[in-house]
Specification:
Elements: E1 3-11, E2 20-26, E3 33-34, H1 39-43, E4 63-66, E5 71-74, E6 77-78, H2 79-85, H3 88-97, H4 103-114, H5 123-128, H6 136-150, H7 160-186, H8 199-208, H9 219-231, H10 239-248, H11 254-265, H12 273-287, H13 293-301, H14 322-337, H15 344-358, H16 360-364, H17 371-382, H18 389-409
The structure holds carboxymethyl coenzyme *A.
Carboxymethyl coenzyme *A binds next to helix 17.
Catalytic activity: oxaloacetate + acetyl-CoA + H2O = citrate + CoA + H(+)
Family: Belongs to the citrate synthase family.
Protein name: Citrate synthase
């Protein structure tokens, strides 16, 4: 809810042009915003803010982050309380509908999601068109986009029933699609969902069971993966969510908009960080392990090397990432349950964490381990291949994307997204005929 503030901002110009009053709005918490919507009409000028460092692109009621305090709230609830008291599907209900479900609402929601876990059988043939060694995120971008070719009764973004069924289908089918992408790359038969299992246990069944061997999901691992899903479910207007909003703002169908989000998430500065982090640990291990950390850190500090410490730093959290604290806890629990405390890669990660937390370069820049530093280690311990990590993130973030997309479509102020630019290229010039160039 945007409340007009009594305070106004005044924009004045040193060339004597007329000053302009700009309204200010207050949110429930967090910084106020200066409304510049009439700026161009009144002054002929745009604002300039590459990377959206100071620009609110929408108003939203879903997720709130205080980067300085290290606070993350879904619909007002602290992430720590959700991670400790709720499961992923309760969190999905919260993000989609605004509140945690009661017992009856939860049973109804779980049953609606569970009834949509299978995918159209023909999707198997579509999947077969991919090379077996394709990156799972390439496969996921294709599969999610292809849902719009299979589910025609949920593609009208302006129809609330279509939006609702698309949301349920996406949440229900993402685990099936991720598991299919994995089984395909491993050359194993697909496993159909088992609806008597919980959402997360069912995903583990589809990943790790085979037609000849049942898989008994271990409770500690199910809880750990469910927590990964909760912690990654939404993160306000990050790059992939903004991509989903921008893509959906043209009126395209929800599956196409979510496929755009999957594509954006793939990048190593965003969802690809957990994969990049594990690959980085593997490289340090190959260089010689813990003894080589100092050398690696020297490369990271050298601006010309282009080497970054993956899994460290965040655009918004400048003191600590509250998700990282929870994931660190889970990381120790999982490695303990699996007896992997002496795993060399885990030992290396802990040594790297210690050095980076004490090193002046990282301390001065407030670079702390982010959630992906630990979630990669947990996923590897569970047996999820490194190349699938970002697809797991996409599975979890789907609910956030769809909640944000539906919020945008229901917002009376929503318009097609159309950023402007500062043009710095050539001014008008004439074409010289080819022979004379
Ligand atoms: N390793 C080494 N130096 C870094 C790192 C890093 N991971 N991150 C930032 N810096 C330095 C950067 O070089 C700059 O130094 P200086 O002031 O001397 O030029 C300073 O810290 C500020 O960095 P920035 O690039 O202005 O920060 P940003 O807010 O634009 O970037 C980031 C945020 C997440 C893209 C970046 O920290 C990064 O690339 N981290 C590694 C990738 C990663 O782990 N991403 C996952 C984020 S969590 C998952 C999610 O929410 O998607």
């Amino acid at each position: 809810m945007m409340t007009p503030s009594d305070v106004k901002a005044t924009l004045s110009f040193s060339d004597g042009s007329a000053a302009m009053d700009l309204p200010i709005y207050k949110g429930t918490i967090g910084p106020d915003v200066i409304d510049i919507r009439k700026l161009y009409a009144q002054t002929g000028k745009f604002t300039y803010d590459p990377g959206f460092l100071s620009t609110a692109s929408c108003n939203s009621t879903i997720t709130y982050i205080d980067g300085d305090k290290g606070e993350l709230l879904y619909r007002g609830y602290p992430i720590e309380q959700l991670a400790e008291n709720c499961d992923f599907l309760e969190t999905c209900h919260l993000l989609l509908y605004g509140d945690l479900p009661n017992v009856a609402q939860k049973a109804d929601f779980v049953s609606r999601v569970t009834n949509h876990t299978m995918v159209n059988e023909q999707m198997q043939f579509f999947l077969r068109g991919f090379r077996r060694d394709a990156h799972p995120m390439a496969v996921m971008t294709g599969l999610v986009g292809a849902l719009s070719a299979f589910y025609h009764d949920s593609t009208d973004i302006n129809n609330p029933q279509h939006r609702e069924i698309a949301a349920i289908r996406l949440i229900a089918k993402m685990p099936t699609l991720v598991a299919m992408a994995y089984k395909y790359s491993a050359g194993q038969p697909y496993m159909y969902p088992k609806n008597k299992l919980s959402y997360t246990a069912n995903f583990m069944h589809m990943m790790f069971a085979t037609p000849c061997e049942d898989y008994e999901p271990n409770d500690v691992l199910v809880r750990a993966l469910d927590r990964i899903f909760i912690l990654h479910a939404d993160h306000e207007q990050n790059a992939s969510t903004s991509t989903v909003r921008l893509c959906g703002s043209s009126g395209t169908n929800p599956f196409a908009a979510i496929a755009a989000g999957v594509a954006c998430l793939w990048g190593p500065a965003h969802g690809g960080a957990n994969e990049a982090c594990l690959n980085m640990l593997g490289e340090i291990q190959q260089m010689g392990g813990v003894e080589k950390i100092g050398e690696f850190i020297r490369q990271v500090k050298d601006k010309n090397s282009g080497v970054k410490l993956m899994g460290f730093g965040h655009r918004v959290y400048k003191n600590y990432d509250p998700r990282a604290k929870l994931m660190r806890e889970t990381c120790h629990e999982v490695l303990g349950a699996l007896g992997l405390e002496n795993d060399p890669l885990f030992k290396l990660a802990m040594a790297l964490e210690k050095i980076a937390l004490e090193d002046e370069y990282f301390v001065a820049r407030k670079l702390y381990p982010n959630v992906d530093f630990y979630s990669g280690i947990v996923q590897r311990a569970i047996g999820i291949p490194v190349s699938l990590f970002t697809a797991i993130f996409a599975l979890a973030r789907t609910v956030g994307w769809i909640a944000q997309l539906n919020e945008m479509i229901g917002d009376p102020e929503y318009k097609i997204g159309r950023p402007r630019q500062l043009f710095a290229g050539s001014a008008r010039r004439d074409v010289t005929p080819l022979a004379a160039r």
